[in-house]
Amino acid sequence: MNAFKFSSLLALALGVSLAGTGCKHKQPPPITHFDHNNSGLTGNSGDNLGNGAALGGNNGPVPTGGGDTAPFNPDDMAQDRSAFAAETLYFDYDSSTIKSGEQTKLSAIASALKSDASAKLLIEGNCDERGTEEYNRSLGERRALAAREALANDGVDAGRIATRSYGEDRPADPGHTQSSWAKNRRDEFVLLHAK
Question: Is pTM beyond 0.85 here?
């Protein structure tokens, strides 16, 4: 009888253990925030950009993550990924601080946006594969928001800038080395125009 109880408990423990390790869930969509009501940029973090626009709101279609809102949907616009390909920003490990050597790239983007009043911008934050999926989405979002804030401080209307985080989902280099990871910790900039 004791052997039966022991084997039953062992089977139950094995079942619980296997259930806990289950299949990997489908990856959630990237965090994107925009305001369908065209009510402008609002948020709940109180991080004001100086023009009434705040970072950290949660008014977008994805209810997780924070981020900012923009009065347009970047997916409804013509996207030019090559325009700012040379201005990709790179970040240190586990950081959303823009390095001083990357400032000239932001200045070039700000200049281009100031010279074309019809242009808008999508900033895509990315991470390397280290860290949890949730943490990397949050870090990618912080990186995109840091670039958005820097551009706003350089005179670009924050209402023309949307952000999106892909976390670790879109590596520029699929390798698993320090060199690969350095290429994946980045913000990419997509020039947007009306279709």
Answer: no
